[in-house]
Amino acid sequence: xxxxxxxxxALAEAVIPSPPDDQTAGAGDVAAERFVLHYLTxxxxxxxxxxxxxxxxxxxxxxxxPFEAGLFEAMDSEERLRALRLLGEHEDPGLRDLAExxxxxxxxAYYGEWTGQDETGAITGTPVGWDLVGYAGPAESVPGxxx
Amino acid sequence: MPGYNIPDVLVVGMGGGGAVVAxxxxxxxxxxxxxxxxxxxxxARDFAGLEWExxxxxxxxxxxxxxxxxxxxxPRILDGVRSATQTAGVGGNTLxxxxxxxxxxxxxxxxxxxxxxxxxxxxxxxxxATLPVVVPDVIAPKDQLFIEGCERAGxxxxxxxxxxxxxxxxQPNAILPVASRHTAADGCTxxxxxxxxxxxxxxxxxxxxxxxxxxxxYAPLAMATDNCEIRTGCFATRxxxxxxxxxxxxxxxxxxxxAGKMFEQDAEVVVLAGxxxxxxxxxxxxxxxVGPHTGRGLTTHWFEYVxxxxxxxxxxxxxxxxxxxxxxxxxxxxxxxxxxxxxTALLAYGGAWPRPSTGPWATRGKMLGPDLKRRMEAYRHxxxxxxxxxxxxxxESSVTLSGDVRDEHNPAPVIRYRASAGTAARxxxxxxxxxxxxxAAGAIPESIHRADAPPALVHQxxxxxxxxxxxxxVVDGACEAHGVDGLFVADASVLPDALGGASPTLTIQxxxxxxxxxxxxxxxxxxxxxxxRGR
Lengths: 147, 535
Description:
heterodimer; A: 147 residues; 56% helix; B: alpha/beta; 11 helices; 22% helix; globular
């Protein structure tokens, strides 16, 4: 059953893939769609549905088939990225901005601190993205670079 | 808090420019009230050092929105612009800047300016001493590598603050000297947190943090005079004028506090310092005189980012955000830039959709999927170069008022940016220079990547330009409005051009210092009076 959450999860997974499409943990492993949904809903409760419909719309255009909910999710990762580009270069600037916002939120979910935070916002574990890139998080001082 | 009934001077906005005017005039004995839309945050308590929490723009600590972060950010209509950095709060955009504080290139202060470069020098010197601006003496690995690349690419070292030709130099930063490893003295701990809000040395109160944003430098100095009151959470909605002796002059400012209550504050002089978006917005919403340059001529340094992977560790998260730069007066500048993983992903790999391109880079444009992950896995070996481009003022680039979108204060600003062909050409040339420096620094040729970043307004300038005559600008050579006595502007909007490409903060602050002197001279008898009125 197609839903905005599943469509956005498919988008996140294409942007930052998980096994078996990639060797290391990806957006699917951290449920990045929850982060994206939270912020889209905060900005405007209609945005998740609009984004999902827009992604299904460009998926339909790419496959030259009638619009159907769930089309984007049914694509493989490479096809999703091609469909996403159609949205990112859409003639409607509002849809282009929505695509960019969604991409930024996926990156923020994965490479930001969110996956290491508890419900209060405290860092209680190493965020997945930090771990993979070798970022230790905010420091108070770097002794090796002092005078 | 002094609690003025009628202050001598009312300043709108406590960012990089407003804080300077407030400090300079309060120090001379004038009574100053500042209206600041945001809060005055306490770094030890409020700055977490986390990228999304601090800089995510939607509900982050640094954003353009109400103090209450559960409320939506204030809307802006962006046309030809992906984002526009505006920060509500004491310190304004200096809260999340790198702290880079070069002077303008002397040759950029042209006959189009109502002053010459020599006029600015004593004011530069005063700001450099007050902040202070420091050339750091312990350089982080990423910046050392950038310097090596510059030298191998044939760039000479340039010394001194007045740069007239191409070359590299250590970045003059508004950051305290690097702290000693042997003592617990104040100073920069090289923690790498400049862009997410300086909060070190650990436990520092605002006035003692290493990066000298306006929150840590001029604002505390203004308050130390006991002649300045900052009203936080207060948003100016109208500038009110009256006729006096057949001339229009400023009378008061109407504003809303965080609880939504409206006030009207009279003042002898009003200084607008909300930045190159909010100052024209307030001006237009107030029905002040509009000429051909009001809200027009928006410039930015349309940043580009070029990145490469090198065989050795670069430590992108270590040291001051940028400790080295290469200047190309008239073209712009390049600087090494260290950032956390989220900013790196967005800046380096979140650009425009890929398109065919020739140049000394292997790839260009947005990078997604496995390619993005491989690049980010090389984060610790990444050298990121930011290119700031000298920008041509154009009436096509502007700040106007929306006809149908508004926030609780006023119609939303419509921020429109169109780059000229000259700006685009300079940007291409700077990106090529950055790629050459990366290659010379030992970057793997196949790793050189040009972001192709869409316009993001980081250094917005020029929408209320100063000019000798009313036909050519909005404010005069003292930054007082051509058509409204007692109304001044002290932010980046007065800059007639993009400074030849140099980062603008220091020039904004030098001009604000000069403007404070002009205010005193023109309206308060050259500061001979030391009695604070209206208490």
